[in-house]
UniProtKB/TrEMBL annotation:
InterPro entries (alphabetical): Mito_RNA-Proc/Resp, PPR_rpt, PROP1-like_PPR_dom, TPR-like_helical_dom_sf
Record domain PROP1-like PPR: where: 239-376
Keyword Disulfide bond appears in the UniProt entry: no
Pfam families in the record: PPR, PPR_2, PPR_3, PPR_long
Alphabetical keyword list: Repeat
Protein's name according to its UniProt entry: PROP1-like PPR domain-containing protein
Family membership: Belongs to the PPR family. P subfamily.
Superkingdom, taxonomy of origin: Eukaryota
Residue stretches of each PPR repeat: 156-190, 191-225, 226-260, 261-295, 296-330, 331-365, 366-400, 401-435, 436-470, 471-505, 506-540
Organism: Gossypium mustelinum
Length: 578
């Protein structure tokens, strides 16, 4: 435990050349006295642009309840007013202790020894925000619960907000609700951050109706939902995989006259980009600028990513140039997005040029940068170059993740090198990582392509018996492989087994099954399966239409299929409406 006999002024930094002979005593976890050098309270801090600025520390320190009370942390932006959590020595001790100790009684017992001063309050909030940056939700809960239930500090909405956020991240929506009620009982006034965090917590728990109820709660108190609350809702829906609802909320936001901000547009550009709707992302970007809403570097990067996903490297490069013309210095995320564009377009050497450029400009590549290069070379069949990048990453001390190994596995899988692929799977296990479903699906696909059905079945048995859960993609691979090989009985056996495994056939499953009969020109059987597909509520895509047309052996059959497809598309609702 730590016992503090005095406290430090926490947040602000001194010039490196400053020295002082003043020392004070604090007790560490072993109860031995340790001398810690006290910082002089210089009037300097780092603003959000990384510049040193000055302040009048006496004026700040005399604020009632501490300099950060009620304003130091804001949802979605960390510290406001450009002040970042620079931890004092005592705050660092508290942080280290909370990250190591899990026993609530020991944590609270240690926190009880802190003096209830303004600087202690600021230290605690700095620690809470740093824990949030580290995504350490349990220590935040222990700290904030201690502040609210046991400390002598005045109850503060910021502390409630941090606690709501932590419980929301842990999907403990009941705890979120009880914390919100405690906030009201304590006569604290909820802020827009409070409501935003409530909405996000409900989205994380998959409770859309409760998220909607938050908007009604705000109106009950005469509050109009702000962009912060709407953005939290859109973000939560996107992370929950509900893009359609997110678009509906965005449209409602416009109808309600809520002022859209940069974050709103950036979220929606991301949404359309991930849905491979780069034209919609660009439309929103143009709308944003016409509304005098200034894009930030995240907005530009989101748009570069949108074009990158579709391999539109020229458009991606154009937006990248606009980013620079707007006065933004490209960061690693922007460079990675541009590299991804060249990779997806099949230009590995273009990606390599961007990789070299970012280093020349003083921007250090991260793990994602190396992964993109492994993927770029792998997609182009340059497996030796892919492995060279993989090894270079390890030499630089960047530990390859499961994704890194998967990309290298895919590179060798494309050229049918089974021995190397099996070696990579062994490397994954030796590095302490557990092969997941995606890894085993890749091996299934490789064995299937090479006609090694016995090995494919062995992998399937291992997945069904072991900890690796077979998903619909697993069976899509099997159905496609057996269908292409003409093993209809085994294909149908696998398809019919899906309901018992609680798996629902998707459009790929149905199309793969259709493809098997289409290759044999079994037109009537294809129509029967197509009807089954529609009755099951699965809507065909372009691939399904091509398979059906390839089953036709006469002009009449082609006309019949074309009529059916046109009729269905006419009745189809747009998946991503404008």
């Amino acid at each position: 435990m730590f016992v503090v006999g005095n406290t430090l002024n926490h947040l602000y930094i001194q010039p490196r050349s400053y020295k002082t002979s003043f020392k004070w005593m604090a007790k560490n976890s072993s109860s031995s006295d340790v001398a810690i050098e006290k910082w002089k309270r210089d009037g300097v801090y780092i603003d959000k642009r990384g510049k040193l600025r000055t302040f009048h520390h006496k004026k700040l320190s005399r604020k009632r309840c501490g300099s950060l009370r009620g304003q130091g942390w804001k949802y979605g932006s960390g510290f406001v007013d450009g002040v970042f959590p620079v931890l004092s020595p005592i705050a660092q001790q508290i942080l280290d202790f909370l990250q190591q100790e899990v026993d609530a009684d020991r944590v609270w017992g240690s926190l009880d020894n802190l003096s209830p001063s303004h600087s202690t309050w600021d230290d605690l909030i700095n620690v809470a925000v740093q824990l949030r940056l580290n995504k350490k939700w349990d220590p935040i809960v222990l700290l904030c619960e201690w502040i609210l239930q046991r400390s002598s500090f005045q109850l503060d909405v910021m502390c409630f907000n941090l606690l709501i956020d932590a419980y929301g991240q842990k999907s403990l929506y009941k705890k979120v609700e009880s914390t919100y009620l405690e906030l009201l009982e304590a006569r604290c006034i909820p802020t827009e951050d409070t409501y935003a965090l409530l909405v996000k917590a409900y989205c994380t728990a998959g409770l859309k109706q409760k998220a909607e109820a938050v908007f009604a709660e705000m109106r009950k108190y005469g509050l109009s939902p702000s962009a912060t609350v709407y953005n939290a809702y859109i973000d939560g829906l996107m992370k929950g995989g509900n893009s359609q609802k997110a678009i509906e909320v965005f449209q409602r936001m416009k109808r309600d006259g809520c002022q859209l901000n940069t974050e709103t547009y950036t979220l929606m550009i991301n949404l359309y980009g991930k849905a491979s709707k780069s034209y919609m992302a660009l439309k929103l970007f143009d709308e944003m600028r016409s509304q005098k809403c200034k894009p930030n570097i995240c907005t530009y990067t989101a748009l570069v990513n949108a074009f990158a996903r579709e391999g539109l490297c020229e458009k991606a490069e154009e937006i990248f140039e606009q980013l620079q013309e707007a006065g933004h210095e490209p960061d690693v995320y922007a460079y990675n997005a541009l590299m991804e564009a060249y990779s997806r377009a099949g230009y590995p050497y273009g990606a390599a040029e961007v990789f070299s450029l970012m280093q020349h400009m003083g921007c250090e590549p991260d793990r994602a940068s190396f992964n993109i290069m492994v993927d770029a070379y792998g997609r182009a069949g340059l497996y030796e170059d892919a492995e060279s990048v993989f090894e270079e990453m390890k030499k630089l001390g960047i530990t390859p993740t499961m994704k890194s190994h998967m990309l290298l596995l895919s590179a060798y899988s494309r050229v049918g090198n089974i021995a190397k692929c099996e070696n990579i799977v062994n490397q994954i296990q030796e590095s302490g990582l557990q092969p997941d479903t995606f890894v085993l699906n890749s091996m299934l696909n490789l064995y299937g392509k090479l006609g090694q059905f016995e090995n494919m079945e062995k992998v399937l048995v291992a997945m069904e018996k072991g900890p690796y859960e077979a998903d619909i993609s697993t069976y899509n691979i099997l159905i496609n492989v057996y269908g292409r090989a003409g093993y209809f009985n085994r294909m149908e056996e696998l398809f019919q087994s899906l309901p018992a495994k609680n798996l629902t056939p998707d459009v790929v499953t149905w199309t793969s099954r259709l493809g098997a009969y289409s290759r044999k020109k079994l037109y009537q059987r294809c129509l029967e399966i197509f009807e089954e597909m529609i009755d099951a509520g699965c809507y065909p895509d372009g691939g399904t239409a091509k398979v059906l047309l390839s089953a036709c052996s006469s002009e009449d059959q082609i006309e019949q299929v074309t009529t059916v497809i046109r009729t269905m598309h006419k009745d189809m609702k747009t998946v991503l409406p404008i």
